[in-house]
Amino acid sequence: MYYITNYTSPVGRLLLASDGDSIVGLWIEGQKYFGGVLKNEIIEAVQKDNLSVFAIARDWLDRYFVGEKPATSELPLAPIGSNFRKEVWNILRNIPYGECITYGNIARTIAAKTGQKTMSAQAVGGAVGHNPISIMIPCHRVVGANGSLTGYAGGIDKKIKLLEHEGIAPFSL
C-alpha cells in the first residue's frame, strides 16, 4: 500500500508518495513520467497527510525552499528502479547544494566503479530523467557537457528556478 500527500512549493504543487516508512516518490505536478513506476499504485494510494514520514519530508522541503541546505541523508528515501538507476540516483544524492555535475561525469564515475572502460552519458541521462524523487534527489543539478540546461522532467523553467534558488548561475559549471 502506498500513501500520498501534496505540498505547495515555489515551483508548483508537489505530490509525495510513501510506502509508510520511506519517501518513494516526489513529482512536480504535470511533469514527464509523473508517478513513474508507481503510476497505477498512485491512483489507488490513500491520501494520508499526517504520516510521520511526510512530516519529515515537509520539514525538509520547508527548509530547502527558505534557503537552508538540508542534506538528502536526513531523509528516508527508497526510490524504486533498476540497480543501474539506483546507482545513478545515489550519485545525484551526493551532488552538493549549489553545485552541478555533468551526465558525462556521472557516466565516468559509474564506469570506474563497475570496471568498464566507458559508460553511455545517454544511459545516465535516461536514469536521471526517470528519477522518482525530484528535488530531494537533486537531478536538477545535472547539466550537459558544456553547462547547457538539457532536459528536466519537471520542465526547464522549473530546473532554472531550482538552480537559481541554489545560487547556481544557469549555463555554467
Word description of this protein:
The protein has six helices and six strands. It has helices at 39-44, 52-65, 83-93, 103-114, 121-129, 156-165, and strands spanning 3-9, 12-18, 23-28, 46-47, 101-102, 142-143. It has 173 residues and is of the alpha/beta class. The protein has a four-stranded mixed β-sheet with strand order 3-2-1-4, with helices on one face. Strands 5-6 form a two-stranded parallel sheet. 36% of the residues lie in helices and 15% in strands. The termini are far apart. The chain has two domains: 3-74, 2-Layer Sandwich (Double Stranded RNA Binding Domain), CATH 3.30.160.70; 83-165, Winged helix-like DNA-binding domain superfamily/Winged helix DNA-binding domain (Arc Repressor Mutant, subunit A, Orthogonal Bundle).
CATH architecture of the largest domain: Orthogonal Bundle
Biggest sheet, spatial arrangement of strands: 3-2-1-4
SSE ordering: EEEHEHHEHHEH
CA distance, first residue to last residue = 41 Å
Radius of gyration: 15 Å
Low-pLDDT segments, ≥5 res: none
How many separate structural domains? 2
Shape: globular
Largest sheet: number of strands, sense, barrel closure:
4 strands, mixed
Could you give a short description of this structure?
The chain is α/β, with parallel strands linked by helices and 173 residues long. It has helices at 39-44, 52-65, 83-93, 103-114, 121-129, 156-165; strands spanning 3-9, 12-18, 23-28, 46-47, 101-102, 142-143.
Sequence-ordered SSE layout with sheet pairings:
Layout: E1 3-9, E2 12-18, E3 23-28, H1 39-44, E4 46-47, H2 52-65, H3 83-93, E5 101-102, H4 103-114, H5 121-129, E6 142-143, H6 156-165
Parallel strand pairs: 1-4, 5-6
Antiparallel strand pairs: 1-2, 2-3
Helix pairs in contact: 4-5
